[in-house]
Design goal:
Helices cover 20% and strands 46% of the residues. By secondary structure, the chain is of the alpha+beta class.
Length: 147
């Protein structure tokens, strides 16, 4: 993934994740996220009683989508990703998340809290603020510029 997109991800804290529920319907939720660069993986925490946890607790992996970017106007940027989520017990993921959200350290000790990761399989980055015009870069190496 290009460096400018990794820098954009690092500058953000909130996204919307949508997970495929057990009946196939989507469920979207606003979430805090942290990430690892290599390989790119997003990390979240949630509680077992929250709706998005149902497929995480029943399936090894679940299809999901993530959107980052809520600003409007000429400097707006958004990142849309498709991929898979799964529960993680890797302490490194937990530590990465708590490094970004240290205020949640006490909550993380609750046995009802679980951490999960999102691994992207496709992405699309849109930057409205470039001098050459609205620029779209995709994971399948497509580049679009619209003036």
């Amino acid at each position: 993934m290009p460096k400018e997109i990794i820098e954009y991800i690092a500058s953000e804290r909130v996204g919307v994740i949508s997970v495929e529920m057990l009946n196939g319907s989507p469920h979207a939720a606003t979430v805090h996220f942290a990430h690892n660069d290599e390989p790119l993986r997003f990390i979240f925490e949630t509680e077992r009683t929250y709706r998005k946890s149902e497929p995480l607790l029943k399936n090894a992996k679940t299809r999901a989508a993530l959107v980052i970017g809520f600003e409007e106007g000429p400097k707006a940027k958004t990142l849309q990703l498709n991929g898979e989520v799964q529960v993680t017990k890797d302490i490194k993921h937990r530590d990465t998340y708590l490094k970004k959200f240290s205020e949640k350290a006490d909550k993380a000790e609750n046995p009802d809290v679980l951490f999960f990761t999102f691994t992207p399989t496709w992405w699309r980055f849109t930057d409205w603020g470039r001098p050459e015009g609205k620029t779209i870069i995709t994971s399948d190496e497509k580049l679009y510029i619209r003036k």
